[in-house]
Description:
Layout: H1 22-40, H2 46-53, H3 57-85, H4 87-107, H5 111-139, H6 142-173, H7 182-185, H8 187-201, H9 215-234, H10 242-267, H11 276-279, H12 284-310, H13 317-322, H14 325-337, H15 346-362, H16 372-385, H17 388-396, H18 404-437, H19 440-474
Helix pairs in contact: 1-5, 1-6, 1-8, 3-4, 3-5, 3-9, 3-18, 4-5, 4-8, 5-6, 5-18, 6-14, 6-17, 9-10, 9-18, 12-17, 12-18, 12-19, 14-16, 15-16, 15-19, 18-19
Amino acid sequence: MTQTTDLRGVVPEREARSGPGGLTLGLLLLGQFMAILDVNIVNVALPTMRADLHASGAGLQLIVAGYTITYAVLLITGARLGDIAGHRRAYHAGLAAFTVLSLACGLAPSTWPLVGFRFLQGAGAALMTPQVMSMIQRNFAGAARARALGLYSAVIAGGVVVGQAAGGLLVSADLFGAGWRTVFLVNVPIGAVLLAAGPRLLPRDGGARGGGVDVPGLLTLSPAVLLFVVPLILGHELGWPLWGWFSLAASAAFLAAFVAVERGAAARGGRPLISPRVLRAPRLLPACGALMLAPGTWGSFLFTTTLHLQGDLRMSPLRSGLAFVPCVAAFALVGLNWQRLPARWHRRVIPAGFALAAAGYLCVGPVAGGGVAYELLTAVIGFGLGVMSIIMTVGLEHVPAADAADASGLLLTLMQISQVIGIATIGTLFLTAAESSGSTRHAEYGTGWALGAVALVGTAFTVLLVRGRAGARDA
């Protein structure tokens, strides 16, 4: 049996502990922050990489995409390995691999070793990051858990923006003449500090669960995700070749096989990668639907807006990254302070946030000329999407602690894939419109309408989420 909470995170007195402490949470979230940072910090360094390494266009694409591919493919497996080996041990192992491979990336002598190191670096991140949400779910309760998830959401949102700004700053500074290499080497001292502090700060696991890795599930889910993600990442740059469409079709076939394999494992009393018990947790599925859409709009909004800021508005990479500060600040403000609202407002805040974000997206085109109105609009969108932390709190509150790894792996994979889908679809719409019109400002109109439509679909999922909550409370 699991304990229930209200939206303020109120739990029975015996569970209302504050959690392991702020330093522990800071250590976990800093590891998560580095992993998110490395998705985007490379982008602004690509011109100097091309000049220094004489890299081809395909090589540059794989330097960026290789990390995201393995990160998305292995997240659920990383979550399960943490459940088997212990989340503390898995976090340390993933952090150590990520740190060592960051050093290897920074010292790479040529393009293709760098590509290989980036793939492996993504695997280290996929082992490390699922343990963050799992340890929050297992070690924090009540209001402390809600606040931890608020910080977690802010880190995910802020890491993307900081990645772009930090990349521009580091490349411009050219520390020690290292150029682009500093975007990788910056992880090394941070990782070393976290590895030294981890044994003293991270809580010990109560005992790893048995059952081993679901190998048939892994062998069907991994290619399903891989075959889906690769053509979406590379499709636009390569002109959507025929092999990409075959890859998407093969992904659907592997996904169907994965569902059949998991059902068989559950029927035999085994432990599938995604337990049906997790999927039956109250309100988790509508939360998954909302979290599948919100990060997709967020990622594609950042992607397209960055291109516009550096396009028609002619901002530098550093300045364009800093332009998102109001958006991230508003996002964090909601995520960290929603519990202060009157309890009767909590259910209404979630769909209201998505509706506000949808309204903001619809205004992207009319204010695309920049200035104060544009900055205020990004803050409005940040306010709206700040409810993501509330959605995670509600979606996870009835998941048993024993299933925290499975739930965290599922949510993280959906959130990561949704960003890839958002950038591939809405990003392609933006790029096509910009190329045909010769203006990124013109492209912002269609992009804003597409983002608004997706956010409205997300609003429907949030209505299901809060209605299910009300029904459960009345039952």
